[in-house]
Automatic annotation (TrEMBL):
It comes from the Bacteria. The lineage of its organism: Bacteria, Pseudomonadati, Bacteroidota, Cytophagia, Cytophagales. It comes from Pontibacter populi. Keywords: ATP-binding, Nucleotide-binding, Transport. Pfam families: ABC_tran. This is ABC transporter ATP-binding protein. The keyword Nucleotide-binding applies. GO terms for molecular function: ATP binding. Residues 2-209 form the ABC transporter domain.
Amino acid sequence: MLRFENYSKRFGSKTVLTVPELTLERGLYWLKGENGSGKTTFLKSIAGLIPFDGTIQLNDISIKQQPIEYRRLVNFAEAEPLYPGFLTGNDLISFYTETKQAQKEQVALLIDAFDIGGFIGEKVGAYSSGMVKKLSLVLAFVGNSDLILLDEPFITLDHKALQVLPEIIDDYQQKGTSFLISSHQPFTLLEPSVLTVANKTVLPASALC
Ligand SMILES: Nc1ncnc2c1ncn2[C@@H]1O[C@H](COP(=O)(O)OP(=O)(O)OP(=O)(O)O)[C@@H](O)[C@H]1O
């Protein structure tokens, strides 16, 4: 269960998002909203990457009071991931495998599913945007996170990866992982609950009726 109380995010003097109170039960959520509405800001706040006012708790664990414990539960894949160009994909995968205490078999399956084995020995600086995107998705699925945040996961992926990604999301969801996914493209096959980011707040679509 993900809970927000008196959440607000300012950049300088400008408040871009407020969520007075919101509880999200375990599940798969599609975060919808226009450009600049606040989807990435919301996801980055939940990932613990940017400061904010108020409270965010996952399973009663507070991002501010128990940051290490909280971060163990959450994985995040950025819309346009950036990694130090001198590292190889293997360097990053090894680091995530260790910090997320992931099983080597799980990692091997992900490398195979996203078909990245042919280039992860090379430095990330030489990757195309789609290759970086696939690597970032593999890293997001490494370990046993309670909540996976995917910011625009479908952009720049090739046809095969576009087919594989929903299957993996479905598989993880059935094992109990929750997802918050921002996307301008529908992914209705997975039957997500819709969250709308508009008017500087986040509301379940049902609340808008
Ligand atoms: N680092 C920053 N400094 C100042 N303002 C920012 C910063 N990051 C985001 N914003 C502002 O916060 C608001 C929300 O931006 P955000 O990136 O969260 O939108 P988004 O819904 O993800 O947009 P898109 O669909 O275009 O990716 C925008 O008004 C944006 O200008």
